[in-house]
Amino acid sequence: MLIKSERDVRWSDVTPKKLYVRRREFIRNAGLALMGAAGVLSSAEARAQGTGAKLPGVKKGGWGQGEMLTPYDAVTTYNNFYELGTDKDDPSRNAASLKPRPWTVSIEGHVAKAGKYAFDDLVKPYQLEERIYRLRCVEGWSMVIPWVGFPLRDLLNQVGPTAKAKFVEFTTLMAPNQLPGQRRPVLDWPYTEGLRLDEAMNPLTLLAVGLYGEVLPNQNGAPIRLVVPWKYGFKSIKSIVRIKLVERQPKTAWETSQPSEYGFYSNVNPEVDHPRWSQARERRIGEFLKRPTLMFNGYGDQVASMYTGMDLRRNF
Prior knowledge:
Layout: H1 29-38, H2 43-46, E1 59-60, H3 72-75, H4 90-94, E2 104-109, E3 115-118, H5 119-123, E4 129-136, E5 141-151, H6 152-159, E6 167-172, E7 192-196, H7 197-200, E8 206-211, E9 214-215, E10 225-227, E11 240-246, H8 253-257, E12 281-284, E13 291-292, H9 300-303
Parallel strand pairs: 1-4, 2-11, 5-12
Antiparallel strand pairs: 2-3, 4-5, 5-8, 6-7, 6-11, 8-9, 8-10, 12-13
């Protein structure tokens, strides 16, 4: 087990209340932006599979303060989570089938402290903090979300990568009975993603267990997901069950499925278009007009040095 600290509230005590969804279908990009701009997002119609359970002991992080947040209803009803369906509203409609308790995460590969960790034991040693990060989707829309979590590097330092560890591979739960999207061969399930070790150890890289101060909703990747804010959203893998330290660059789900469209790095880059659309501009949910896409999603000061000398067109 990981080192434990005493707390008044156990993670297992934060039990989700009965999940529900009564909402109309959100229309895509421009229409949703118009709704948000007009202020007509209806909580009664659009609040999705959130638990409402507040997370204890969360401190405010030093990131993103002052940015206008994307409304909770949009964050929880307009999602890419193909395990729960390919349409944007499928994850919130199907989220109740995912059972995030009990949950274990397996730490494997080139680490000193490999093993299976119960979710409570995995999370408990770390100070949870709120970080407001921009999330840029490869499809051209973006959000600003107050995530709650802790730096991935804190966990990696705890389990001790060995000298052979060069990359980190992540795997999502494989359970077609809980994740109906896995019943269709949309991707080669289970979903996998990966980071270079220095990317995983960057202070920005977050293991998120909540948003808006609450327990992470199922459709947003409960109970634990990755958030890598300078990369396109699909790199931030959801519902993680395995973290493996490996020597060679792992094959990722979208890279395997469509290698000409989705590279391993997938850094937000306005100068490298997707083969089927431009990445130069984006529409932030809640806004009508598009805005320029920022290199590294605006986090260049924190991450650009990791790619010095790399051809970011070739290593897309």
